[in-house]
UniProtKB/TrEMBL annotation:
InterPro entries linked: DGR2-like_dom, Galactose-bd-like_sf, Pectin_Meth_Modulator
Cited Pfam families: DUF642
Keyword terms of this UniProt record: Cell wall, Glycoprotein, Secreted, Signal
Transmembrane segments annotated in the record for this chain: none
The species this protein was found in: Oryza brachyantha (malo sina)
Major place of residence: secreted
Protein localization: Secreted, Cell wall
Name of the featured protein: DUF642 domain-containing protein
Leader sequence residues: 1-23
Limits of the DUF642 domain: 27-185, 198-363
């Protein structure tokens, strides 16, 4: 017999809904912004008590359902989009099943914020499969405290479970990170930006999902934390820092709709390896500018290719603009690394990190003939 309040029926419906897998497409996961709230019967204050209490999600450990404007001591908790988010305490996780295409690549984008812990990290993984990445979130790149992160994976099965986990060792489980707005995007093999461009995805148009209302871009983690880059063709080289993927809807972009902002100074490099012929000459061309995000100062990008190197200065007023640069070099190996790094650390008026924008990168061969190989003469 069902009680008058219908709580058992509601709980059963939520369980069935939560178990349904979402067919992967570009955009939010089902209840990816956590606006469908748990039933009050499965809550203890802010703590979520039922494993399937949050529609479409499975939770384990100390998970809280947070409303925007909620206070924690003297801290006012905000939510970047909508009215709700979740907080993961020590050894807590959220997960959702997603229907994907086996063998395809996907990128997950989600927003996260620190609360009171100082060295927070989030582990993102898919199951089944060994792929996982531990994303450091202790560096905050926005004045609001919220950043969006991207992480990529290759689907080993047609049905996978996305898991976001907080290892956490803080004495207070309520010091865990906040999570909001979880989305997915299919990553396709990058198309050549020009017929003779040897670089893949040189205009950065193929990349992770960008939230339409997010004005802070998407952070791309170092490849030590992500086996498959959410920016196809490119690798981010760093220990803990990231580069920022920016869009023309919210930033000044030199070319097309996407670009990369080097926000971590000398600690992070953007790199792609390209097959080359030793002895042949090549020309690397690219745009350097500012993202129109109030990043004011002397910006510098250092570009490396083979044994060639050039430094491109750009005096930024923080309102957008760019300059074109080039580097000619002779290949010395079968594979050449093209590397971009910001040679200085820049902060905005609010103290957050920023840097130069790189875009519209091309690499072309300017001499088709390699020098003749040396032959031994028989006397």
């Amino acid at each position: 017999m069902v009680a008058n309040n219908g709580a058992p029926v509601v709980a059963l419906l939520l369980l069935l809904v939560s178990a349904a897998a979402r067919a992967a497409g570009d955009g939010l996961l089902q209840n990816g912004n956590f606006e469908y709230s748990p039933n009050k019967s499965q809550m203890n204050g802010t703590r979520v008590m039922g494993e399937y209490a949050i529609p479409y999600w499975k939770v384990t450990g100390f998970v809280e359902y947070i409303a925007s404007g909620q206070k924690q001591g003297d801290m006012l908790l905000t939510v970047p989009e909508g009215a709700h988010a979740v907080r993961l305490g020590n050894e807590a996780s959220i997960q959702q099943q997603i229907s994907v295409t086996r063998g395809m690549y996907y990128s997950i984008t989600f927003s996260a914020a620190r609360t009171c812990a100082q060295s927070e990290k989030l582990n993102v993984s898919v199951a089944p499969g060994p792929e996982s990445g531990e994303l450091p979130i202790q560096t905050v790149y926005t004045s609001s405290g919220w950043d969006s992160y991207a992480w990529a994976f290759k689907a080993k099965r047609g049905l996978v479970s996305l898991i976001i986990h907080n290892h956490g060792e803080d004495d207070d489980p309520a010091c865990g990170p906040l999570i909001d707005s979880v989305a997915i995007k299919t990553l396709y093999p990058p198309q050549a930006t020009q017929t003779d461009n040897m670089l893949k995805n040189g205009d950065f148009e193929e990349g992770p999902y960008v939230f339409p209302n997010a004005r802070w871009g998407v952070l791309l983690p170092p490849n030590t934390e992500d086996e498959h880059s959410p920016l196809p063709g490119w690798m981010v080289l760093s220990y803990t820092k990231a580069v920022k993927y920016v869009d023309s809807a919210h930033f000044a972009v030199p070319h097309g709709a996407r670009a990369v902002e080097l926000v971590s100074g000398l600690e992070t490099a953007l790199m792609q390896e390209v097959p080359t012929v030793p002895g042949r000459s090549y020309r690397l061309e690219f745009s350097v500018g500012d993202a129109g995000d109030s990043c004011v100062g002397s910006l510098q990008v250092r570009a490396y290719a083979g044994e060639g190197c050039t430094t491109v200065p750009y005096n930024s007023q923080g309102t957008g603009g760019h300059t074109r640069a080039s580097l000619e070099f002779a290949a010395v190996a079968d594979v050449t690394r093209v590397v971009f790094v910001s040679s200085s650390y820049i902060t905005k008026w609010d103290g957050t990190l920023c840097g130069p924008v790189v875009d519209d990168v091309s690499l072309v061969c300017v001499s088709q003939q390699a020098p003749p190989s040396r032959r031994l003469l028989r006397l």
